[in-house]
Amino acid sequence: MMNNFTNRVAGGRKSLTFGVRPSQRGELGIAMAFIVGATVISVVVGNVYWQQIILVALIYVIAASGLSVLDALAKQISFGQGAVVGVSAYSMALASGVWELPFWLAVAIGVASGMAAGMLMALPSLRVQGYYLGFVTMAAAIALPELLLLFKDQTNALTGVNVSDLPLSQRLFGTLDWLTIVIMVLAVAAVLLIAVLRSSKFGRQLLLAGTSSEAASTLGLKPGRLRLQAFAIAAATGSVAGVLYVCLIKYVAPSSFTLSLSILLFFIVVIGGPGSIAGTVLGVAVLYIVPDVLLANFVDYRLLIYGVIAFAVMFWMPEGLAVGIKRLFHSMRRKPIAVPEGLTSLEPIIEAAAAAGVAKPSRGEPVLSVSGVSRKFNAVVALDDVKLDIFPGEVHAIVGPNGSGKTTLLNAISGLISLDSGAIRIDGNDVTSKSASRRARLGLGRTFQQPRMLDSFSAWENVDLGPGRVRGTSASWLDGVLANFQSGWDSIVAGTLPHGQRRSLEVVRAMRGEPTLLALDEPAAGLSHAERDQFGRLLRQIASSTGAAILMVEHDLELVWGTADRITVLDRGRVVVTGSPADVRKHPAVAKLFVGVGNAEG
Hints:
The protein is of the alpha/beta class. Strand 11, helix 22 and strand 12 form a beta-alpha-beta unit.
């Protein structure tokens, strides 16, 4: 099946150009052409006013690009990007215009100050998310001009700060100077940054951390660190934009960096399309050039204009102008946007696992040891003195009625919830107080009831999300078999796969880290009978051929009785019985919990 599918895929995995996927090169080329073309035309025309308008617009593109990465990939909301620009600009202006420091030292001070402000605003992201985070960052945008006025003697807030004799302002010919070239090049670099991050593994990790921090943690990633890195990217682009603003305008005042600037940058991202390569360019064109140039007489109604445009675009093109225009173009050509589809199969992986040649280890010490684990949620006892040992090469199932604490136990083992009492050891290491990402790096793999996939990316990009072999082992049998099908899987959009295929991919993704313990939460849910049988054979092959222990929470008793070496039955947070399928089937308390368990296949 997999061989037939692979043959159907045309072309396989195409090489990246400058780290950009082939499907994104057209949009990147249009964005770059727009930036370069607008700059060149303004210089050729020789109109200084229009040239400055274009350069200010490009500075906004730079500032908004980092915000687009923060919003679209890391899923972090910030209404404070204008404050980052303002801190950077004001710091550089003071260093150059008041303290009379050398130009490049002033630039460094400006960028460093903006970065510091951006990272300070990033700290709340470790505690709050969504619009709560947005309101926290908005406070910085509101406070900045007030702080500048409060320390007016130090900031020259009443008169503003003038800057002159900047080296980048030297004319080359006509109205062209080095500053124009620098701003144009950095604007091109900013849209290229979006394209590269969207195509990169790091960008996918940012998105996974933003959409499902639990899934990211169980892959060995650190969501908090990834969020801070995303804020650092946004702070860097905002800081560069602030420095360029000073070089271009040569004057700063508190009124230059009010809340409206942050709102403008946020709307640029929303209107253009978060994460779209050309989105920031289109957003700046619609929200800055049109209102401030063509509607200059209505400057007092700027925020109202932003709101009207935002409402219109979100109503007709909810994904933003870049995506909306692309869809409109394809509809006019009566050619739908191509979404590659296909099917994956576990058969090659089952065969490779059977041929892995890793002898099943002796029983020895347990891979997982759970001792006296208890956890309450208010007055509800979810886990009550749970004890459990799982050994290498063993398939161990946890079953029980709904609400018995099965998933809670799996979350406790994975490090997604804390314990009230008890201890958990993985490979002899006490991980009771360790994070989920640390447990993953010690050899714990995990899947979820609902597959945590990135629907807009390929099947392969979803598999290639974690840090790889997190424990520093050599190339594995799984890497070998996946290398044969990488090109095929890279041509399938994950969002087009049926539920069973998505679940299989999540299991493969967890296996890539070579876990010594693979924890699966209801892995058979939604699988067809054939898929379930295939999945059961995969679990047996992994356990018997590689020595990994498998712990699964499952309601499908036929799969459990046909696959598991041992079974633990939970009820109301307590262990009822642990033993072989034959022993558990005979236990008198089990028949009361599961109707028909006595007739289950052994």
